[in-house]
Amino acid sequence: MSAKKTLTTLIMALALITVGTLVAAADMPEQVSLDTMVKYFDGVEFDHAMHADLGEDCSTCHHHTTGTGTTDERCISCHAESEEVADVSCRSCHVTEPFSAEQIKQVASNVYLFHIDKPGLKAAYHWNCVSCHEQMDGPTGCQDCHSRTPEGDAFYHEDATSSSVAEATGHE
Amino acid sequence: MSGISRRRFLAASVAGCAATTLAGPRKALASGTFSGYPDSMGVLVDLTRCVGCRSCEAACNKEQKLPAPDRPFDDMSVFDETFHDGKEKRRPDENAYTVVNRYNPEGGAPVYRKVQCNHCNEPACLSSCFVNAYTKTPEGAVIYNGNVCVGCRTCMVACPFHVPAYSYSSALDPVIKKCIFCYDTRLKNGRPPACVEICPQEALTFGKRKDLIKIGHQRIETHPGRYVNHLYGEEELGGTSWMYLAPVTFDQVGFDPKPGNEPIINNVKDFLGTVPMVLAIWPAMFTGFHLLAKKQKGHDDHEHDTEKQHGDDGGEQ
Does B186 touch chain A (CB under 8 A)? Predict the structure, then answer.
């Protein structure tokens, strides 16, 4: 009798966990396109599901915004009890143009703002990805994650001409 | 007029002159000291974030319409270039207003350092320029007017950071070339310079200089293990608009570790402060002496001779 009860409880618990995971999975994107700043490099098709499996918990990347708490001692004093926010995407907090006149003015005008040194979106991506990839032996080269566009090829690898021009004009 | 009164007059003149000489330069120094425009902008360069991708060099090249480089910007072998028997690394020149160099501090990961004009609060180039080609703008940039530059290259000698370069390649109109903080195309419109915008690591933070000082110290406080406790450029040489944070002592990454906190101009301010005083007071004073001496010669020749014979006071021989 008691064995039967235990089994039922176990099955129910399992069912609950499965449902919970399914709900969370439905909320969580499998794939995220990081393509808001494509110019010299293509965007990144980020395998969110794979990285979510690797990460210890959501806060590793999402700080305190997913409502799962934070372990960073610098954040805990304010964000130990922080709730899940409506939009947990990187770009909802990290702006694409952190040094625009409007952004600088906005930061300066908010005297109660603690995060006066918050990185822009490009730096947030690179810091988060590269620092972890270094530890986990992931790819760290620029084109390992996003390939260079033709515009980027021209920008970084324009044909070196100045020396040949100097030779052509007889300039020593 | 007796001899005593004349002696008194001379003594008083000398004392007055001495007082003016001593007080003069100090007053001139006080009136001429400039600690920067209050709302000037700057850039905080964080060497712990730089990965040496050279994107800033490429962005500068395009923004300033400089000639294509000898080696492309994705060629990292430039970090191995050295000059003067390996003592010097790359420096900005007429074709590159900024360069990134790699340093290998002992027992640590390589550190990359971006070099460009630091846009001093009291620029030595500006104070050395006798045609007044340089301007420190209220936005913080040190810009120059190539049309009035006569190519004397005094600013190259004056600059404590060896930044201004010379267009030696131009036979007919050689002028000084250096980083202008993207003033014409960006800064004066409130936009960050091209190098800041391109940086993938946000190793360059653009903002008001006074805010950057706050941010710099906050970073050191938050990550004491990551930085040495010094914000280079906050005080150095009277302060610079571009400031640096580093993971190792600054001498290990090519900085002059102790350039002093006085602006370069202070080396000559005392002397220069006396020049107007000399020009204004000495002609009047010596004309006065001359007239007095001439007058005395005409009327009191006898008394003067008598006094000289007694010679008990050698004060006015």
Answer: no
